[in-house]
């Protein structure tokens, strides 16, 4: 089929490229000419393992193309995916839909035959209704249908998550549209993905509810980890012990330094505000937001105890500063709270990240990026393992660190406390 993807961020570029790889003709549109030119030359603006090769392969086979012309691209397509950003408005934590509505206004001038208009961006419930009103102004309803088809891609795993989704959610009550989309997704359904057709509003809410639940699950195990630290239990035993219950499931039960990224923090705030507009109080998700925002303080309090409040001139090495492994994304990473705190306390901080130096730390005193792990670790008093890159999983600290009494604060529980004890290394994990 002929697809038009509007917006070439994570969602748009991954979705467009994967749809092309499944045999569709795809044109990805962005208003940023510089970005489009780079994409045409195989330069990918985002860090996503495997994406560069897939873009180049499909661009070469002419199934995938890039353009800045929205009108032309829409008019030659059967299905249009809206994948533009829905950032959170700082003042009231509500999703900013200006980009979505601007695109809808442009689309309405290029519908001359039946088209399916799909929102893949995460949008508040009833956004599809508003898009329909914008399109309806000039066109008869029969010329288009507006569908919600949320994505569930994780940064760093986006291609795999697109090609092997647990489910495809299609929010439309139009039978003709549903049939067309079931055909579009048939390659994924034949590989085991469940195809769920529901109302548009339900599909919009499923996305928010999914992210809010996953954020809740992570916060739950983070709080259980706090308890485990007080009663000398290893939280990993709890994660395994409860995760084997099929009603709970073992995934997303890894404690860490707080969830970050561009989605969980944004979507938890957005669903709470959306519910407020419908006079509903999502008190549980509100408490998840508060608990997660406070998590860095809990981690830093523990660090203060570990260092006996002696931060001054301590040499600390941060391994990984992004919000998780396999991404270069710093959005709402807990390192953005921890590094300034330690810098203010007078510690000297090296940091190493496989995705390179971060501008976010440029203004911090005594903080420097070291592009080699060995050099970053050489004379440190404390190692903070902040993300779970494979690069950090089998380090021989005793040979790498030239100091005698160094400490490891493993915020991702990558190492075994028993092994650390056997090697006589002072080790702290999370929830253990
Ligand atoms: C998330 C959702 O997983 C995805 O379905 C949605 O489309 C976008 O938002 P993403 O934010 O890319 O994806 O990353 P994810 O892997 O979900 O991790 C989010 C945060 O939770 C990270 O900070 C991660 O470190 C943390 N996390 C995740 C944990 O602390 N413990 C876990 O067990 C899993």
Helix-strand blueprint:
Blueprint: E1 2-6, H1 10-21, E2 25-29, H2 33-40, H3 51-60, E3 64-67, H4 70-75, E4 79-82, H5 98-108, E5 115-119, H6 127-136, E6 144-148, H7 158-163, E7 167-171, H8 175-184, H9 186-189, E8 194-198, H10 200-230, H11 235-243, H12 264-277, H13 283-306, E9 315-319, H14 335-344, E10 348-352, E11 367-369, H15 373-377, E12 382-385, H16 397-400, E13 407-410, H17 417-422, E14 426-428
Parallel strand pairs: 1-2, 1-4, 2-3, 4-5, 5-6, 7-8, 9-10, 9-12, 10-11, 12-13, 13-14
Helix pairs in contact: 1-3, 5-6, 10-12, 10-13, 12-13
Bound molecules: uridine-5'-diphosphate-xylopyranose (UDX).
Molecular structure report:
The protein is α/β, with parallel strands linked by helices and 432 residues long. It has 17 helices and 14 strands. The longest helix is centred in the middle third of the chain and has 31 residues, at 200-230. It is elongated, with a radius of gyration of 24 Å. The model has no long low-confidence stretch (mean pLDDT 96). The chain binds uridine-5'-diphosphate-xylopyranose (UDX). Uridine-5'-diphosphate-xylopyranose binds next to helix 10.
């Amino acid at each position: 089929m002929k697809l038009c993807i509007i917006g070439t961020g994570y969602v748009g570029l991954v979705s467009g490229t994967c749809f092309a790889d499944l045999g569709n003709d795809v044109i990805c549109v962005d208003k940023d000419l510089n970005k489009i030119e780079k994409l045409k030359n195989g330069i990918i603006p985002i860090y996503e393992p495997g994406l560069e090769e897939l873009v180049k392969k499909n661009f070469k086979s002419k199934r995938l193309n890039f353009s800045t012309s929205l009108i032309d691209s829409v008019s030659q397509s059967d299905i249009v995916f809206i994948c533009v950003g829905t950032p959170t408005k700082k003042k009231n934590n509500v999703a900013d839909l200006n980009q979505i509505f601007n695109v809808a206004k442009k689309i309405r001038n290029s519908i001359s035959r039946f088209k399916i208009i799909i929102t893949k961006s995460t949008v508040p419930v009833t956004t599809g209704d508003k898009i329909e009103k914008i399109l309806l102004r000039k066109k008869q309803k029969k010329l288009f249908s507006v569908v919600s088809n949320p994505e569930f891609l994780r940064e760093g795993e986006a291609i795999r998550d697109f090609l092997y989704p647990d489910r495809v959610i299609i929010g439309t009550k139009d039978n003709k549209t549903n049939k067309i989309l079931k055909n579009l997704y048939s390659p994924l359904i034949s590989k085991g993905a469940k195809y769920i057709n529901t109302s548009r509003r339900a599909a919009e809410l499923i996305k928010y509810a999914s992210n809010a639940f996953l954020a809740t699950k992570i916060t739950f195990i983070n709080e259980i980890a706090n308890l485990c630290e007080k009663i000398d239990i290893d939280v990993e035993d709890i994660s395994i012990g409860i995760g084997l219950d099929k009603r709970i499931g073992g995934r997303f039960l890894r404690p860490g330094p707080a969830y970050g990224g561009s989605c969980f923090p944004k979507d938890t705030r957005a669903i709470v505000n959306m519910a407020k507009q419908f006079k509903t109080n999502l008190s549980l998700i509100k408490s998840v937001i508060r608990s997660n925002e406070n998590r860095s303080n809990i981690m830093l309090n523990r660090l203060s105890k570990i260092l006996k409040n002696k931060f001054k001139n301590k040499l600390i090495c941060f391994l990984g500063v992004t919000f998780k492994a396999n991404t270069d994304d710093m959005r709402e990473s807990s390192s953005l709270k921890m590094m300034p705190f330690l810098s203010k306390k007078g510690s000297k901080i090296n940091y190493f990240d496989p995705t390179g130096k971060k501008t976010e730390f440029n203004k911090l005193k005594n903080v420097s990026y070291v592009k080699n792990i060995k050099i970053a670790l050489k004379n440190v008093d404390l190692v903070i393992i902040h993300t779970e890159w494979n690069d950090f999983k089998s380090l021989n600290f005793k040979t790498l660190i030239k100091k005698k009494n160094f400490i490891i604060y493993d915020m991702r529980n990558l190492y075994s406390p028993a092994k650390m004890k056997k090697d006589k290394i002072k080790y702290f994990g999370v929830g253990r």
